[in-house]
Specification:
Elements: H1 2-36, E1 40-42, E2 47-49, H2 60-89, H3 96-129, H4 144-176
Antiparallel strand pairs: 1-2
């Protein structure tokens, strides 16, 4: 049993390190693209690109705001996942904080997806209201990847619910004995 726990703890630690590296890469990529004032940067070894909704292509400042806000939401979700992995390293799989971190991660996936769909329309509407007359159309776009993200976040909510139920059953069983 202890060997399995050590193996799980090592996997959780490496996953936590991978999440931290991913978070650093997101911050560096967004920082580079914001510093350049562009949505893409191509070099001989690769390219960085912010995927901008079609409505914001002609508005680089609004596209930058969109990219930063959505990235911040997902970074917070990854941070909560890092905290969850830290709990897993200590063997706290069904603890109340672990369940809260998983729910928070699921919520950030859902919120990031919804904000990603609604924010371009809100930004363009605000631009129109403050006097940018060349804004002529405002639309809300949702594609297949957004639907998948909503389904994945729902799956994480269900897993968190099951973890909570398992914790409750464990506590009930301890009271019976």
């Amino acid at each position: 049993m202890n060997n399995v726990r050590d193996k799980t703890s090592r996997k959780a630690r490496w996953l936590r390190y991978a999440l931290i590296a991913t978070m650093a890469a997101i911050v560096l990529a967004n920082g580079l693209l914001a510093w350049r004032g562009d949505g893409h940067h191509v070099t001989t070894w690769g390219s960085l690109q912010i995927e901008v909704p079609a409505d914001l292509v002609n508005y680089p400042t609004l596209a930058l705001i969109y990219g930063v806000l959505v990235s911040l939401i997902f970074l917070y979700g990854l941070y909560r996942l890092v905290l969850l992995m830290r709990l897993f390293e200590r063997g706290e799989f069904f603890s109340t904080p672990a369940i809260r971190h998983l729910r928070a991660f699921a919520f950030t996936l859902l919120a990031g997806t919804i904000v990603g769909c609604l924010l371009p329309a809100i930004e363009l509407l605000a631009a129109r209201l403050i006097g940018l007359n060349h804004v002529t159309a405002v639309s809300i776009d949702m594609d297949g990847s957004d639907i998948w993200m909503i389904l994945i976040s729902t799956l994480f909510f269900v897993i968190a619910w099951i973890m909570g139920e398992a914790r409750q059953l464990s506590e009930d069983n301890q009271l019976i004995v």
